[in-house]
């Protein structure tokens, strides 16, 4: 038994130099060759990718659209071209794909000279990115309508909704630009003021 162990040990000892001769050339080939001027080789370290989105986000939008108004008492409706914006949103990322912001929007319709109706939305809004460029948003909050004319103005508040979808052009940067569509239905006592807009915007990711 002991002799067998000693014999095996001798085999191992004789095998070590042979294994070293076989492994050393392979290790030498795996190491980068030093520079011709004797400078030590530089090993590149691949940086880890940062999160898809993180931290604080801010956005602003402006564009054109239309406003649709309804009157429940008379069943009358009115539609006209409108100016949209300036819309603002600020908040933070809940996950790398989902952001929660406080958002405010405006759509202004001027049916006649010195007559103006402004409708908008103010409240929390979620923005969900389905890919690196395409995203959707939705919010529930306060709707407001502010008619102005003949030197008088008034503001009504009610229930507001916000829905939007957008496409970002410059993904991968902190400062990005996008195009989006947004609808902001507002429901009040006896009437409705609903806006829709095509927007261009900026967002800090």
Helical residue percent band: 10-25%
Shape: elongated
Q: Distance N terminus to C terminus? A: 73 Å
What string gives the helices and strands in order? HEEEEEEEEE
Q: How many distinct beta strands?
A: 9
Number of helices: 1
Give the oligomer, counting copies of the same chain as homo and different chains as hetero: single chain
List the helices and strands and how they pair.
Layout: H1 2-30, E1 56-71, E2 76-93, E3 98-112, E4 115-129, E5 134-149, E6 152-153, E7 156-168, E8 175-188, E9 191-204
How would you characterize this protein structure?
The protein has 205 residues and is mainly beta. The protein is 14% helix and 60% strand. The protein has one helix spanning 2-30; strands at residues 56-71, 76-93, 98-112, 115-129, 134-149, 152-153, 156-168, 175-188, 191-204. β7 (156-168) and β8 (175-188) form a beta hairpin. The model is unreliable at 1-16 and 46-50 (pLDDT under 50).
What's this, in brief?
This protein has 205 residues and is mainly β. Helix content is 14%, strand content 60%. The protein has one helix at residues 2-30, and strands at 56-71, 76-93, 98-112, 115-129, 134-149, 152-153, 156-168, 175-188, 191-204.
């Amino acid at each position: 038994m002991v002799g067998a162990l000693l014999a095996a040990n001798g085999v191992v000892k004789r095998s070590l130099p042979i294994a070293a001769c076989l492994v050393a050339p392979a290790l030498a080939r795996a190491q980068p060759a030093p520079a011709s001027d004797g400078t030590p080789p530089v090993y590149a370290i691949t940086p880890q990718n940062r999160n898809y989105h993180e931290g604080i986000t801010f956005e602003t939008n402006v564009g054109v659209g239309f406003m649709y108004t309804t009157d429940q008492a008379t069943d009358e409706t009115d539609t006209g071209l409108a100016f949209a914006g300036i819309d603002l949103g600020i908040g933070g990322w809940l996950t790398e794909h989902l952001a929660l912001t406080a958002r405010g929007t405006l759509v202004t319709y001027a049916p006649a000279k010195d007559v103006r109706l402004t409708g908008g939305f103010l409240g929390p809004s979620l923005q969900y990115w389905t890919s690196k460029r395409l995203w959707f948003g939705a919010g529930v909050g306060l709707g407001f309508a502010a008619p102005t004319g003949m030197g008088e103005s008034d503001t009504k508040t009610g229930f507001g909704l916000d829905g939007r979808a957008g496409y970002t052009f410059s993904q991968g940067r902190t400062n990005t630009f996008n195009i989006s569509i947004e609808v902001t239905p507002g429901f009040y006592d006896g009437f409705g003021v609903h806006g829709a807009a095509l927007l261009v915007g900026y967002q800090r990711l």
